[in-house]
Amino acid sequence: MKFLLVFDFDHTIIDENSDTWIVKCAPERKLPNGLRNSYQPGHWTDYMGRVFVYLGDNGVKEDEMKRTMTTIPFTTGMIDLLGFIGENKELFDCIIVSDSNTVFIDWILKAADLHKVFDEVFTNPAAFSSTGYLTVQHFHAHHCAKCPKNLCKRKVLKEFLDKQLERGVSYTQIVYIGDGGNDLCPVMFLKKNDIAMPRQGYTLEKKISQLAQSLSPVQCSVLVWSSAIDIMSYLKLLIKE
């Protein structure tokens, strides 16, 4: 009787996008047009690499970045939800699959003392170079045409489940909590007994309902949330059953 909770990070655990929040550290809190316009769809991580170079070139140091990142607000009710999960770790395994990066997620979770809630974090590896610049790499290579170049969340989820099975761990139900377009691929991998929890009014919810309208709905159940308290209510029901 164990449940797997899979969380996205940006606009799910935190109420902002960590990658766009870092722009507050830039001169005049904005990026030059040339840099902003250099983004190509599917290549966000490469674009963020250029943003970090720009910040480094402008003398933005690690401690300033860290101070800025740890001011990001959590989504309403999220601190309570993660506290609840932490108190029930014997029932829940909990992972993050995110297109942010290891440095940002680590800073934010540790500052709020929430890092112990999560068993594993799958995100783009980042580190500060010897010259003090933040660098970021692709999480992995994959062949999924639907996902951004650097990360297919379905592949991450599938590999995690396979590894757990080898250790003798299987899950009664997977609960996938996210908001973005790149969460659709893993949601389509979920089975009938699993549940997708898209955030109300965000891309994932819209994409799931478009699929239903085109008569190719996702296999799993769908429960929309607007506050993390909605998620907590569902999990409380789950463990009562």
What would you note in describing this structure?
GO terms for molecular function: metal ion binding; phosphatase activity. Its cofactor is Mg(2+). The protein has 241 residues and is of the alpha/beta class. The chain has a domain of 160 residues: 3-Layer(aba) Sandwich (Rossmann fold). The strands form 2 sheets. It has a 6-stranded parallel beta sheet. Helix 5 packs parallel to helix 10. The longest helix has 14 residues. The mean pLDDT is 96.
Q: How much is the radius of gyration in Å?
A: 18 Å
User: Any idea what the shape is?
Assistant: globular
Which structural class is indicated by helix and strand composition?
A: alpha/beta
Q: How many helices in DSSP terms?
A: 10
CATH homologous superfamily (4th level) name of one domain? HAD superfamily/HAD-like
> What is the CATH topology classification name of one domain?
Rossmann fold
The biggest sheet amounts to: 6 strands, parallel
- In what order do the strands lie side by side in the largest sheet? 3-2-1-6-7-8
Distance between the terminal alpha carbons, to the nearest Å? 11 Å
Helix content range:
25-40%
Count of DSSP strands: 8
CATH class of one domain: Alpha Beta
Which oligomeric form is depicted?
Answer: single chain
Mean of residue pLDDT? 96
Strand content: 15-25%
Poorly predicted tracts of residues:
none
Gross CATH architecture of one domain: 3-Layer(aba) Sandwich
Summarize the helix and strand pattern as letters.
Answer: EHHHHHEHEEEHEHEHEH
Protein name: PHOP2 phosphatase
Family: Belongs to the HAD-like hydrolase superfamily. PHOSPHO family.
Keywords: Hydrolase, Magnesium, Metal-binding
InterPro entries: HAD-like_sf, HAD_hydro_PyrdxlP_Pase-like, HAD_sf, Pase_PHOSPHO-typ
